[in-house]
Specification:
four-stranded antiparallel beta sheet, single chain, Phosphorylase Kinase, domain 1, alpha+beta
Length: 294
C-alpha cells in the first residue's frame, strides 16, 4: 500500500509545495489497497499537489526494490538530458520524479523520426564501450540452452541459428545506454513540443547499440532516412546499422527467452497475460525461423 504520509513528507522537504489534496490522497489510498498485481516493476502514481504541480511517485517492496534503484541511477546518470524526467526526491523503496504532461506521438510522422534520431544519438553517447563478438556469444549461451530445454527450438536449429548470427556479426559490438521498450506509449511530446523518454525502467546500461530499436516492429514504420539524418547530425555513429540482421536476430532470441521465462512464472489465473505471452512467443519463433531459414 502506498504510504501517503511518506509522500507528503518528501514532497514538502524537497520541493516546498503544499500537501496532497485530501481527495487525491483518498483516491491513491483506495487504489493502493486494490493494486495487488503481478508486475515486476514498482507501481507508479500520479501525485497532484494543492497548488497544481504534478509528480510521479514510485514505491517498491523487497521483491522489486532493485528496479527502483535502477530507475534512480538512470535519472542520476542522465540528469543533464532534457528528454528524461527530472529526479525530485528518493529514499529507500521510494522515488519521486517530474511528471510529464503531453501527448503520445504518431511514429509514422517525420517529426517523430527526427526527434527520435536526435535523442537516441545523445543517449547512445553516454557510457560508450566495445564488446568483442566472441564474448557476446559466450554470454548468450544461457539462452541457447534454455530454448532447447523448453523445446522452443531443437539442438540442430539452435546450432544453425548461432552459426548464422556469428557469420553476420562484426568483430566488436558497440555498447551504450539504450532505450529498451520501443512502443508509442513510452514516448510523449512534452508541453514544449520536445520528445520525452519517460519510462525509467527502459533505460539499460552497457547494452548492444541498438538491438532493441532494430528488433522492434516500431522501427519498421519509422521514416528511416529522416531518423538517420537527424541521428548523424546530432553526432551519432550509425555503423551499428551495418549489421542489422545480426542485431535483430540477437534481440529476437533474447525476447523469446524472456517471454518464455516469464510465462513459466505467471500463475494460471493470469490467463490474459498468459495468452499475450504465448502470442509473443509464437510470433518471435516464427520470425526467427523465417529470417534465418531454420
Amino acid at each position: 500500500m502506498l504510504d501517503i504520509d511518506r509522500i507528503q513528507e518528501i514532497v514538502e522537504a524537497s520541493v516546498k509545495v503544499a500537501l496532497l489534496q485530501p481527495q487525491q490522497a483518498a483516491q491513491l489510498k483506495a487504489r493502493g489497497k486494490s493494486c495487488k498485481g503481478i508486475s515486476q516493476n514498482p507501481v507508479g502514481w500520479l501525485v497532484i499537489c494543492a497548488d497544481g504541480r504534478k509528480f510521479k511517485a514510485y514505491e517498491a517492496d523487497e521483491s522489486n526494490r532493485y528496479r527502483l534503484d535502477l530507475y534512480t541511477r538512470n535519472c542520476q546518470i542522465l540528469k543533464d538530458e532534457s528528454f528524461v524526467p527530472d529526479l525530485v526526491a528518493y529514499a529507500p523503496g521510494f522515488l519521486l520524479v517530474e511528471y510529464v504532461d503531453g501527448s503520445f506521438p504518431d511514429m509514422k510522422e517525420p517529426r517523430f523520426a527526427a526527434a527520435l534520431g536526435q535523442v537516441l544519438a545523445r543517449l547512445h553517447g553516454v557510457g560508450e564501450g566495445m564488446l568483442p563478438s566472441r564474448s557476446l556469444f559466450e554470454g548468450v549461451a544461457y539462452y541457447w540452452e534454455h530454448l532447447v530445454k523448453w523445446e522452443i527450438f531443437t539442438e540442430g536449429q539452435v546450432a544453425s541459428l548461432r552459426k548464422a548470427l556469428e557469420s553476420c556479426a562484426p568483430a566488436r559490438f558497440r555498447t551504450s545506454i539504450v532505450y529498451a521498450d520501443i512502443k508509442p506509449e513510452n514516448y510523449c511530446w512534452n508541453e514544449q513540443g520536445e520528445l520525452t523518454l519517460f519510462d525509467l525502467g527502459s533505460f539499460q546500461q552497457g547494452r548492444i547499440t541498438d538491438s532493441f530499436l532494430l528488433g522492434s516492429t516500431a522501427f519498421e514504420i519509422v521514416d528511416r532516412d529522416t531518423f538517420l539524418s537527424a541521428y548523424v547530425a546530432e553526432g551519432g555513429v550509425s555503423n551499428w546499422l551495418d549489421y542489422e540482421k545480426c542485431l535483430r536476430g540477437l534481440n529476437s532470441v533474447e525476447m523469446l527467452w524472456y517471454f518464455t521465462a516469464q510465462l513459466k512464472k505467471l500463475p494460471l489465473w493470469a490467463f490474459k497475460r498468459r495468452r499475450a505471452h504465448k502470442g509473443w512467443i509464437k510470433d518471435l519463433q516464427s520470425r526467427i525461423k523465417r529470417e534465418f531459414v531454420l
